[in-house]
Input
Amino acid sequence: MSEYRSVFERYEKKYIISFSQKKRLLDRISDILLPDEFGESTLCNLYFDTPDYRLIRASIERPVFKEKLRIRSYGVPDKSSNVFVELKKKYKGVVYKRRINMTYEEAVDLLCRRNLPLSKGQVLGEVAYFMGHYKGLRPSVSIFCERSAFYSAEDENLRLTFDRNVRFRNQLLDLSLGDDGTRILEDGLFIMEIKSLNSIPLSIVHTLNELEIYPRSFSKYGKAYEMIFSPEPAAVR
Output
């Protein structure tokens, strides 16, 4: 196991913004931002779902409670790369995330072959319970993006991330096969997330309002699901 933090509880707000809005926002608040531990990276995510897509179908109905299971890698992994197995739940606007750091080979062995490590621990126990509760879990969709991540110099628990070139594929569901996929977002658009333990500082809220940047409900997996099954799929513009 690594030194990475394994348990999170926080609020998350999403925004779809243009390149111009991103530039103006960073011009205003860059003095309080520092690069996150992963800084600039390619996020590679492999989501797990039931054969009838039970998890994502429930999620897009915007329930009070929703949950998801995924493997996340920073960069295209090989079998020995460090990745995270993440169990993410959201209840009444609060996000609870549990994650385990292991190799990609171990993660695939765990989630695809149900081979539990001998040393379990609380988080692994929660993942095992999740897999037992949702029968037939299997790789469903891979989602990739380029991410710029920052945290506040005034509050290390306040984080901002900007995702661009968001894309997905529902075939070749092995992250080691590369990060090619179908675009979800048009060029020039970013998904910004603000993550905090408490409310967003008023100074940032005022800046967002002045720049006409407003929260928007958006799920990468949800949009990918829509594009897979829509007769006329379209990327977000």
User: Anything to note?
Assistant: The two ends are 41 Å apart (CA to CA).
